[in-house]
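This section describes the prediction task in plain terms. A model, or a person checking by hand, is given the sequence of a single protein chain and must write out its three-dimensional structure as a string of tokens. No templates, partner chains or ligands are provided. The sample shown here is typical of the held-out split.
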Amino acid sequence: MSITLAQANRIVQAGIDFARAHHLEPLTLAVLDTGGVPVALAREDGAGLLRPDIAIAKAWGVLGLGIDNREIGRRAAAAPDFFTSVTALAGGRVLPVPGGVFVRDAHGWLLGAVGATGDTSLNDERAAVAGIRAAGLVPETGAEDEEEKAA
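The expected answer:
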């Protein structure tokens, strides 16, 4: 099972709506299916030309490695030479910052991932999460694990 076009379009629009409501910088959102293929992509007016590539890389990286962006960041910091090699193997489509979010259904099945970019990484992630929730789906960022450890 993979994300549908209708779900992907809803995520993108709701993510952009969130960004406008919170006065974020112009965003770009990419929704990828479980195979890493873009299903929907939108670049707001004023967003930089590299933003689509960055959004795709944030989503593709979590799918490709099977771990969230926070864990990618931890591993990149712990083993920078290895991370450089992984990034090269992935054609640059792995980024160690928030903004790539797994998309799951209510049963926990992976449907794809969303990448968002244009503002701070945490705000990018907030917009992606808002879009995923608006589509009735479940976001997974890795922040959930950090919150559980802190409790």
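For orientation: The helical segments are 5-21, 51-65, 69-78, 80-89, 121-134, 143-150.
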